[in-house]
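fyi for ur records
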Amino acid sequence: MAETNTKGASMERAAFYFGFGSGGHFLRTKGGYRTYLEPREADPSLPWDIGLMDTGLLKNRKVPDDPDGRVHWVCAGRPLWFGFFWWDRSGDKRDASNSGFYVRGFSPETVTKESVEAMAPAAFAFACEQWPEIVSRQLFPLVLQPMVAFAQPEPA
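which gave:
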């Protein structure tokens, strides 16, 4: 499988997948389909640890464990990363099974609530294009939800 990262305006674009696949729940990359239990081994700039990717982001928001296709999201870090996550029983039927796409390379010139809200749909679409096998196995259509909260990232 060819590498799926493409050059963005400010940095290389990448979309990683966290969730169920052969061997369990891991962070997965394209281009050799590597798996990681420690996200920063995949990319040192990832702002979330495995505990947050593996249900933590959903539980922090008190999202009921009821798969329905609603995709929640957050952005953080320098460079800016988008995290898109949802409850998912398409691969693992057990409770507390979730999936997520973690995307970089969609950083607006000025990071504001409005600019990241405007950029999120493109980042999510990019992830869906990179991981069609994950999107196609879903039991519900994936629907991006509105932003819940925004905190201005710290200066680099």
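The helical segments are 39-42, 50-60, 113-130, 132-136. thats all i got for now
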